[in-house]
Design goal:
Elements (H helix, E strand, L loop, with lengths): L5 H56 L3 H12 L4 E8 L4 E4 L14 H7 L10 H4 E5 L5 E10 L2 H5 L11 E10 L1 H52 L14 H87 L5 H32 L7 E3 L1 H11 L1 H7 L2 E5 L6 E3 L1 H18 L6 E9 L4 E7 L28 H11 L3 E7 L3 E9 L9
Parallel strand pairs: 7-9
Antiparallel strand pairs: 1-2, 1-5, 3-4, 4-5, 6-8, 9-10, 10-12, 11-12
Helix pairs in contact: 1-2, 1-6, 6-7, 7-8, 9-11, 11-12
């Protein structure tokens, strides 16, 4: 689409205005010249009529009609004369350059008679406009007709040849028709000349106006536009140069002032940004150092807490075992061992075995938590892994009388570590089974797939004792447990495995209402997943 700027619009408006004004001036001038030419023709026709009347006056007074006819005929032969005739007050044509109409009567309703006979009584005096008429002949040529009344002068009423009553004002009418072809040609030529002059004048004025507009408006505007684009592009060093003492010059000066202020503001901003970057960098170093110290402190605190917890957890069973060993050694050294003592020793050894197994479990879970290996990915079926996990704990489920409800959906295979996922599912299911000691015992396992987010969903729900609300934020901490014989490392291990698989674990629980653990694992079909 062509862009029409203010210069183009201004030029168009001015040209249209020039055409309108010149058109009106030309029209009025042509009409005025036509009117003047016509007035000149009418003035000439009037003088010609008076000349004819005066030329024939002498012969008319002597009633020498042949001389009058000869004069009229001679006058009618002059260039530009179409017809000359004289008729009396009754319309009887007495003399005419057209012999065929001599002796006939003119129609008083025609144009040449209607001016006088339009009213009941014929007029004796006519104004100049009423004496003239313009009409077209049969051949299409335009003719100017003029009637001139022949008044009854004293010589006429006292002449010896024929006397007219003194009361008769008008004796007859001289009707002259003059061709306007020459005038029409002059008018046509005048119109053509006027139009040509008008077009030349309009073209000259338009070109002059275009040059003036381009000089005082278009060029400064383009300079301003180029300058503003330069400013918008970030160039604040090159000023806009318009050396005029008008509004355009003032506007350019205003732009230059604005550009100077923008340049100063830009420099201040750059200095501020540079200073701010340095401060941010310094602050970042300080924060990083503080963060490193905090992380180091938290690691040391965690190690200390973990060490204290491990020491406490392992020290209790070892202390018990050591106590029973010392007691048994003391009894055996007395060499007085009865059957009752042997029975006690057997009970002591069973207790020591259980405490030793508990210590072993603590160490094993601790090793699983602290030495989690990187997953070995391969295409696996989540539903199959859950089925295998349920088979491994089937005996414990059957012994506790737990009802298992499975609701598996079709899930696409994904890249995952089957052994680690099986370990995670095992820990969750065992925790759920141990939480269901009394009342209704039901374990619900559901799977699903979110097509929109491409996520695999696993939900494991129990009807156990639930987790207190105030402890919900501690469930993933190592050694946190609500069970009497729990190690508190199961969910911590689960959290680590699911996190390694880029997944998420959510827990919904309420005291006395059971616990629901929801696992979300993103679908990964790449055979070489990012580690």
């Amino acid at each position: 689409m062509v862009r029409r700027g203010i210069t183009f619009k201004l030029i168009v408006y001015i040209i249209v205005l020039l055409i309108s004004i010149l058109g009106i001036v030309l029209y009025l001038n042509i009409e005025d010249q036509k009117k003047q030419l016509l007035n000149e023709v009418i003035r000439g026709a009037t003088q010609f009529s008076d000349t004819v009347i005066k030329s024939t006056k002498y012969d008319m007074l002597r009633n020498q009609r042949s001389n009058v006819y000869r004069i009229i005929t001679y006058i009618g032969m002059q260039p530009g004369i179409s017809r000359v005739r004289i008729f009396n007050k009754d319309g009887y044509i007495m003399v005419s350059t057209d012999p065929g109409e001599i002796g006939k009567f003119v129609n008083k309703t025609e144009e040449q008679c209607y001016a006088c006979h339009a009213v009941g009584k014929p007029l004796e005096k006519l104004t100049m406009p009423k004496r003239t008429r313009i009409f077209n002949l049969a051949n299409g040529s335009k003719v100017l007709g003029m009637i001139t009344p022949i008044y009854n002068e004293p010589e006429c009423s006292s002449a010896s040849c024929h006397a007219h009553p003194a009361g008769q004002k008008v004796l007859g009418v001289l009707d002259i028709s003059m061709s306007l072809n020459t005038i029409e040609r002059e008018i046509k030529g005048m119109e053509i000349r006027s139009v040509i002059i008008g077009i030349i004048t309009m073209c000259f004025l338009s070109i002059l106006m275009i040059l003036i507009i381009k000089s005082i408006i278009d060029k400064p505007i383009k300079t301003l536009i180029t300058g503003t684009h330069r400013i918008a592009g970030g160039n604040l060093d090159e000023p806009i140069v318009i050396n005029t003492r008008d509004e355009m010059g003032e506007l350019a000066n205003a732009f230059n002032d604005m550009m100077h202020k923008l340049s100063e503001a830009k420099n201040e901003l750059l200095n501020l940004v540079e200073t701010l970057e340095n401060k941010v960098e310094e602050r970042t170093h300080e924060l990083k150092a503080a963060q490193d110290n905090l992380i180091r402190s938290e690691k040391l605190a965690s190690i200390g807490k973990l060490s204290a917890t491990v020491a406490h957890e392992i020290n209790n069973p070892i202390t018990g075992v050591l106590t029973y060993i010392k007691l048994m050694l003391k009894k055996l050294r007395q060499e007085d061992t009865s059957d009752e003592d042997i029975k006690k020793y057997i009970d002591y050894l069973s207790l020591m075995e259980r405490e030793t197994e508990r210590t072993s479990g603590i160490v094993k879970n601790l090793l699983d938590f602290s030495r989690q290996r990187e997953p070995h990915y391969k295409l696996v079926d989540i539903n199959t892994i859950i089925e295998e996990t349920l088979m491994l704990v089937r005996n414990q489920i059957n012994l506790q009388g737990i009802e298992v409800i499975k609701s598996f959906s079709a899930i696409p295979q994904t890249m995952a570590d089957a052994d680690q996922l099986k370990q995670a599912f095992m820990n969750i299911i065992i925790n759920a089974c141990e939480a269901m000691k009394e009342g209704e015992k039901r374990l619900t396992v559901e799977t699903g797939f979110d097509n929109l987010k491409k996520d695999i969903k696993i939900s494991i729900k129990d009807t156990g004792t639930g987790i207190p609300e105030e402890d919900m934020n501690k469930v993933f901490e190592p050694f946190y447990t609500t069970k009497e014989k729990g190690t508190g490392l199961g969910l911590a291990v689960v959290y680590g495995i699911i996190t390694k698989h880029k997944g998420r674990i959510d827990i919904v629980s309420k005291r006395g209402k059971g616990t629901t653990i929801e696992l979300t694992i993103p679908l990964n079909e790449d055979k070489n997943p990012a580690q």
